[in-house]
Specification:
Elements: H1 3-16, H2 20-29, E1 35-40, E2 56-62, H3 66-79, E3 83-86, E4 100-106, H4 115-125, E5 126-137, H5 143-159, H6 169-175, E6 178-187, H7 193-196, E7 197-205
Parallel strand pairs: 1-2, 1-4, 2-3, 4-5
Antiparallel strand pairs: 5-7, 6-7
Length: about 210
Amino acid sequence: MGLYEKHILPRFLDAGCGTKPITYQRKKVVPQAEGRVLEVGMGTGLNLPYYDKSKVDMIFGLEPAEEMRRRAAPKVAEYGIPVEFIDLPGEEIPLDDNSVDTVLLTYTLCTIPDGITALKGMARVLKPGGKLIFCEHGKAPDAGVAKWQERINPIWKKLVGGCNLNRPIPDMLGEGGFKIEGMETMYLPSTPKIAGFNYWGQAVHG
């Protein structure tokens, strides 16, 4: 791992994923988590302040990047929710079938190389009646914006840690074994449109 990936990229991602519009989105979705939670792509723990501690028993924090886990550790101590870090990528979820009540997915599906395999793993570990809470950016509905997403994506992906601008989030959720029960969409304010079209809501194992 080079200097950029180890030291510069984590700080860049932390800043980019902690802007006011994205933080507002986190505040909307994270408090819905309950019970035993699998957070896929925990990063530096940006979601931790927004969990409802009265509803959450513990969190499995799936995060393959050592630097991200290191930066998350002080937040874990500060907010007092039991967290068990899992040092594996999203495609490798080492939990038992039907073992978690909630899967939380925020601004992560864009970066997982094999998103469908990862989603199938999330569906596997989710208990019957459990829910996937998601908030992701992805393919825009406007043809002009979508065209630029396609053009820029190869360069963007290299610079921003594997992030894809143009993933069709609802289609991926369906292919991964989920049925969307409620979803909202919008362009986030003060965010470039190519990276700012958001999908958020809940899904169940379909």
